[in-house]
Amino acid sequence: MWWWPIGGAAGPADLALLRPSDHERLARIRTPARAAEFIISRARIRTILSEVLDVPPDVIELGRRRCPCCADPDHGPPTVLQPPTSRWIGISHTEGCGLLAVSDAPVGVDVERVRAVRTDVLASVVLTRSEDGYLRTVPEGIARERAFLRVWTRKEAVLKAVGIGISTDLTVIETHPRSAGTARVVAGLPGAPHTWSVSDLSLPGPWVASVARHDGRPGPVELRRA
């Protein structure tokens, strides 16, 4: 796994690594800050993948796998379209930070910047009863916000690994927030749930992040700064 800070304007070297599909997405981004975040992240992803796949960064084409539910190619998990590879990738970014995971099996990642969160409002649509009970024991303020975002990033990382994203009932996915470090989370397609190993990532700065892999995947998660 790799992480990178995002700040300031994108440079010419970053822009040079965008492909036509990236420019199409960039045209739909409304704010300069979000546009810079997208450009910088796309450039970092291609630079990292060029080393992993041993190809020039400007030949890497990013896209999506087909959705495992409906086979739609527009909203499945991210993938490397070119060059052909068996590697799986996970991508996430938030204000000030980007993440990339590369694996030989399905993987999902999520990162969120710590911020004020109305946990009382979101509890009924995000949390299981056990998660809600745990959060009520955490002091209000930044500690509770971090605890909530740990639950959120675990859920989103798992659902990204499944390949469906936030398109299901979050209140039935138990992330065991009392388990710091790594937890086993059950989630999957209807009728075919899997157990995932979800690890909290230690990032310097105001971010909370998680990565999800198939349960039983060997070895620790290696996190590097790009």
Keywords for this entry:
single chain, 226 residues, alpha+beta, Ribosomal Protein L22, Chain A, 2 domains, four-stranded mixed beta sheet, four-stranded antiparallel beta sheet, 6 helices
Architecture blueprint of SSEs:
Blueprint: E1 2-5, H1 12-16, H2 20-26, H3 32-53, E2 61-64, E3 78-82, E4 88-94, E5 97-103, E6 107-113, H4 119-126, H5 129-136, H6 142-162, E7 182-189, E8 192-201, E9 207-214, E10 224-225
Parallel strand pairs: 1-10
Antiparallel strand pairs: 1-5, 2-3, 4-5, 6-9, 7-8, 8-9
Shape: globular
Biggest sheet details: 4 strands, mixed
CATH superfamily of the largest domain: 4'-phosphopantetheinyl transferase domain
The number of helical elements comes to 6
The helix/strand class is alpha+beta
The CATH topology assignment of the largest domain is Ribosomal Protein L22, Chain A
Order of helices and strands: EHHHEEEEEHHHEEEE
Q: Helix share of residues?
A: 25-40%
Strand order of the largest sheet: 4-5-1-10
Q: Provide the CATH top-level class of the largest domain.
A: Alpha Beta
Shape-level CATH architecture of the largest domain: Alpha-Beta Complex
Give the strand content. 25-35%
Straight-line N-to-C gap: 9 Å
Number of strands: 10
Mean pLDDT: 91
Rg (C-alpha, Å)? 17 Å
